[in-house]
Amino acid sequence: MNLVLVAPDELDAQGFVHLHGRRAEHLVRVLGAARGTRLRVGVVRGATGIGEVVRNESGAVTVAVRLEGTAPPPPSVSLVLGLPRPKALSRLLGAVASMGVARIDIVNAWRVDKSYFDSPRLDAGTLAEAIWLGCEQGMTTWLPEVAVFRRFTDLLPRLAASPAGGCRLVAHPRASRLLEGAPTAALDVPTVLALGPDGGWIDGEVAALAEQGFVPVSLGPWVLRTEIAAPIALAELALLRRLRSAREGASPPFEARFD
Amino acid sequence: MNLVLVAPDELDAQGFVHLHGRRAEHLVRVLGAARGTRLRVGVVRGATGIGEVVRNESGAVTVAVRLEGTAPPPPSVSLVLGLPRPKALSRLLGAVASMGVARIDIVNAWRVDKSYFDSPRLDAGTLAEAIWLGCEQGMTTWLPEVAVFRRFTDLLPRLAASPAGGCRLVAHPRASRLLEGAPTAALDVPTVLALGPDGGWIDGEVAALAEQGFVPVSLGPWVLRTEIAAPIALAELALLRRLRSAREGASPPFEARFD
């Protein structure tokens, strides 16, 4: 727990938060927090700041919080994820939440084992916990929204109803274009990135996403599990965007353009 | 198992391989292989090709293998990894092996829980299995070498004895320079990338690595677990190298060419 994440209504008008249960226990047992210990605290979808433990009694920890500045800008990238093995799902959600994403749509696909949808790891509470832990670890307050689509076709109307524009990419190992070849990949615009389940999307799914404006791209020469492909895709997008803004911020170098 | 990986001495002079145990069982039970099934086969540190199941009897599977061409070029990147939680170690080794790495040195560090070194997951056989499974999944024949250093200082003479030159980077979230700012990061040269345990390297470790020519770099604005940081670092390096060779391969921008 690198950040003590609290819901807005957990912070009282005097700036105190009273923790019980998992967070209190983790603070005391794992981090050795005691009266006077200072911690990094963040409010869900809000600012971060410094907290100081002012009371630690019978399993309850009270932290006095001083927030600094305003909330960081919201993440610009959302994910559509073909459901991986349930055991990998919690890890995957934690990893991408730790990197900051706006929204995660978990979706059925042809190559998803149908039994996966019976897993208790898809319960709303379990999904929310994995994401919360990821945000604590990654020190981000932008808890993504999550939805589960038990039929791939149920996702399509939602995509069709979303505002057009921005960047829509579908990862596909056999795509003829690499991520950096997609004209919008380096732009800092609202982005939806669709990653298939282990084994990938089938052609019909790629075609249905293409109809919704998704450009098929390959992330590189690898055969990746979904749980690794998703963080890699986020990192590659972020790197392309950093390179682009560095190019635009600096005086134009003679080797000016990659796209 | 996307690739049936076999050791060179498993392939007989007539091009047959006789599989028992895990691989035979996986082929039959999970992939439903039977007489006539065609599979992708690769020889450790060698070529890949097509195999055809010619016999499947009492738990033993015989595959006739026809290799195509020569071995792919060896990976240029090696890793130094601060030991993560043992449970994460097998996954991490599988993930990086699936992407292709030349060598993995697992090392103790200040922020490694000392009990981790007692885990059976550090047994040579368990490490080798995780790597083998990763190569099967990632379809690479370049099984990396692995070594475990129970003291950080034991690693340093090995680094000092290795050929100079190439690219040496140490990932450090507080580094003032991003990966793309390291002059050698985009060059396709022998590279060693050092990633700390969860919590990162301490300053003394970064300094000791810097004495061996390692340049501290940040992978981006994230707080990442080692098991995610390592694949991300490999992907970022590969992307920088692709961009560089695309720039060098392309005709200069802004210049009309009619030939």
Q: TL;DR?
A:
Two copies of one chain form a homodimer. The first copy, chain A, is α/β, with parallel strands linked by helices and 259 residues long.
How does this structure look, described?
Two copies of one chain form a homodimer. Chain A is globular, with a radius of gyration of 20 Å. Chain A contains six helices and eleven strands. The first copy, chain A, has a six-stranded parallel beta sheet with strand order 8-7-6-10-9-11, sandwiched between helices. Chain A has a five-stranded mixed beta sheet with strand order 1-3-4-5-2. The first copy, chain A, has two domains: 65 residues, Hypothetical PUA domain-like, domain 1 (Ribosomal Protein L25, Chain P, Beta Barrel), CATH 2.40.240.20; 171 residues, SPOUT methyltransferase, trefoil knot domain (Alpha/beta knot), CATH 3.40.1280. The C terminus of chain A is likely disordered. The two termini of chain A are 39 Å apart. Chain A is 32% helix and 24% strand. In chain A, strand 7, helix 3 and strand 8 form a beta-alpha-beta unit. With 259 residues, chain A is an alpha/beta fold. Chains A and B meet through helix 2 and helix 6 of A and helix 2 and helix 6 of B.
